[in-house]
Amino acid sequence: MAYLLNTPDDKKEMLKSIGVSSIDDLFSTIPESVRLKRPLNVPEALTEIELTRHVERLANANISADGAVCYLGGGSYDHFIPAVVDTVSSRSEFYTAYTPYQAEASQGSLQAFYEFQTMISQLTAMDISNSSLYEAGSGLAEAILMAMSVTGRMGKVLVAESVHPEYRLSFTTYLANLEPSVETVACPSGKMCLEDLAGKLDETVSCVIVQHPNFFGNLEEVEEISKLVHSKGALFIVTYDPISLGVLKKPGEYDADIAVAEGQCLGNPMIYGGPYLGLLSCKEAFVRKIPGRLVGQTVDRNGKRCWVLTLQTREQHIRREKATSNICTNQGLFALRASVYLAALGPKGLTETAELCFRKANFLMDLLCKIPGVKPKFNQQFFKEFTIELPCAAQPVINALVKDRILAGLCQGRWFKEMANVMTIAVTEKRTRSELENYAALFGAAVKAVQGKQ
């Protein structure tokens, strides 16, 4: 970032332009009672060399996924990113491009978004995909608003307890001042209880939301859920892990109406937890209700292939009462990275990546469950994340492994008070056998140490 100096003359000129005579006049509307009455405790200025060293020391105190062995999950994963993703996405014509309105949109940007839409539709076996949303949490909110518009129902929204708690908080906030109530469907066994779902389903329900694989890593009975939901005329919304579609059935194959996902795992780094890239696909019948941007392919007046933003005009987003959505842009750079990633891996590469995640997660689960007192929290099938119960509090164990530069996983007590001794661990294709075995050994020692202090 450039360092821009404001000289006294610069300040005078700016104050004159604003129409005030001093800085005090500029802030005269701020009450005296909330103004700082003492000088700021700012240390003496540093030379550039000193400042650089100071900032480097501060930065080195952080532990990132790149500088550790990472088992974090919950929507943000340490997957391998091929070098071609950075190479292509860092080209200046992509990296500096503003996401423009129709009249300003370059053909290159539009074609990139069109290719992204095509690949996401192929990935999910859904008819239509938009050119991305902000991230999965708000993407689910958009899907719910879309379902309400399609069905015309303003009664209830049903959501599985196994859907990411932060996603649930996001869309509950969106719906806070709207008619529908949000009801949670119990998941006592680590996946949606079909009996509880059947009891809550009626003709007032606009949609049912399920995460597959869910927040605990477990697989849901999506085909049975789909049949139940459609029997009452509601829409089935599923949020999925894109990598899992290398081995699991695609949302379109079990008749999902709207599919939403977090696209971080498709060639995007973890970068402090997001926001990243929201994916949204749906059936063709709902194309005029889809939120965000949709790029179509056509021909120009000379018969040459070209691309346009379609079905949604700029005015639709500005005229709020007629808008289908609050979003009027898309995550262009992240979407481009996802496109390059999917093109680089191809179907075979995606399947190999998914299989590696699955096998390595099961290998680590088996190792950890040999530790006295450690056991699976749920007796369910899982993909790349699994949830275990410890004989002690989970967070101290997680904290103990940080000194070994291991980011051990997520303590479920953060979201569920009754699960303070439960944690979820994500294993990606990057983890080696030696890393997994080392993790299990250190994990066992940490559990024993924490138990000794209790």
Structural account:
It is globular and about 70 Å long. The protein has helices spanning 8-18, 23-26, 48-60, 83-89, 92-95, 107-124, 136-151, 165-175, 194-200, 222-231, 314-318, 332-368, 394-402, 433-453, and strands at 69-70, 128-129, 156-160, 181-185, 205-212, 235-240, 258-262, 278-282, 295-299, 305-309, 375-376, 385-389, 406-407, 410-411, 422-426. It folds into two domains: 65-79 and 347-453, Aspartate Aminotransferase, domain 1 (Alpha-Beta Complex); 83-340, Type I PLP-dependent aspartate aminotransferase-like (Major domain) (Aspartate Aminotransferase, domain 2, 3-Layer(aba) Sandwich), CATH 3.40.640.10. The model has no long low-confidence stretch (mean pLDDT 93). It is an alpha/beta fold. Strands 2-8-7-6-5-3-4 form a seven-stranded mixed β-sheet, with helices on both faces. Strand 3, helix 8 and strand 4 (181-185) form a beta-alpha-beta unit.
Walk me through the topology.
Layout (H helix, E strand, L loop, with lengths): L7 H11 L4 H4 L21 H13 L8 E2 L12 H7 L2 H4 L11 H18 L3 E2 L6 H16 L4 E5 L4 H11 L5 E5 L8 H7 L4 E8 L9 H10 L3 E6 L17 E5 L15 E5 L12 E5 L5 E5 L4 H5 L13 H37 L6 E2 L8 E5 L4 H9 L3 E2 L2 E2 L10 E5 L6 H21 L1
Parallel strand pairs: 1-13, 3-4, 3-5, 5-6, 6-7
Antiparallel strand pairs: 2-8, 7-8, 9-10, 11-12, 12-15, 14-15
